[in-house]
Amino acid sequence: MKLVFFICFLFFASPAWGEGQPFSVHTLAEGETLSAIAGRYGAAQSDIASANGLADGERLPPPGTVMLIPGSPEHVLSTLYEAKRRGLGAWPQPRYPSEFLAPLSALPAAPSPKRTGSGSQRSVPAGQQSGMPVPAETGPAPGSTYTVKAGDTLYRIGKNAGVPLEDLLKANNLTADSMIRPGDVLVLSGPAARPVKEKKSEEQKIGVPVSGGGSSPFSWPLRGGTAREKRVSRGAGLFEPAAPGTAVFAPASGTVLHGGWMKEYGNAVFIRHGEEFATFCGGLGIIYVKPGQSVTAETKIGLVGEGSGPGLTFHLLRKGKTVDPASFLRTSTVP
Fold it and tell me: Do domains 17-93 and 103-109+126-195 have the same CATH topology?
């Protein structure tokens, strides 16, 4: 079964974001070292450690562990997120369906592995690759049901089936905190079910920001009392020192993908903004949001945490690749 999993992983872990492979899949062998792996792939040891949930100086996981190796420094965050959501490297394995993280971006249609003997290939719709229902343009048919699989969440099931989360919860007498387990059968349609393409949400309306005086949907997460000059580059992102307890707001409307501990980043929040962009806010202490929650630029997502050099670490990801966020931020929001 493990061999089948690795083969499927190699085919379907390819990026949904287009250009380039964001990571390589590596299975640890007996006696390997981090420096040897870094040399083999031409990646920095610190980037590999960060992506796989290893603290500085921490020993590698046991042989046979699958790790993801970032293809470039700009792909570290997307690789980290993918490794964490799958429980690879030193990240803990998800124990319950509710612990599985949604992908950074919707999976595209991709070819299946070649069948042994026939050599034929066939394309599989994105939803079927991950066991999710494929949305129809008019929503699910009356009486439609879905059998929960490992890794499913209520939010993802509703999104893929074209059923608003509130309708999915109501139809199944559930709440946002309800647990679902593999084998559970959910009703996908009901009196309140609406067509998939009824209208775009604020998250879906986010387009490509225009630099140099054009409109941009992203705001700097810290408000007031700080100067733009205090922001410094940290890798491909930005960092601004701030006192512990300083409020941090969502950069734009979107959906929370993750909120929790991220090793060297402290508590952090990933937010998806449409199918192309995602933001990362690290260095937090208290977090006020949870996965699946919709947010706007007025939503307080957390507070800056304590520690040496407290402040906000901010990254903007476009198609899974960290890009310079400076030109994507609203200049009107900079004090």
Answer: yes
Higher pLDDT, 32 or 212: 32
Class of domain 17-93: alpha beta
Beta carbons within 8 Å of 139's beta carbon, 6+ residues apart: 161, 162, 163, 189, 193, 194, 195, 196
Helix or strand holding residue 4 (H, E)? helix 2-12
The whole-model pTM stands at: 0.64
Return the CATH superfamily for domain 228-333: Glucose Permease (Domain IIA) (2.70.70.10)
Nearest CA to 42 out of 75, 2, 15 is that of 75
Q: What is the DSSP letter of 198?
A: S
Tokens of 294: 């919709």
pLDDT digits (tens, 9 = 90+) for 245-300: 999 999 999 999 999 888 778 899 999 998 889 999 999 999 999 888 999 999 99
Residue 59's pLDDT is 87
The class (CATH top level) of 103-109+126-195 is alpha beta
pLDDT of residue 221 exceeding 80: yes
**Angle in degrees, CA 278, 279, 284, rounded to 5:** 145
Quick check: 215 and 329 in contact, CB under 8 A? no
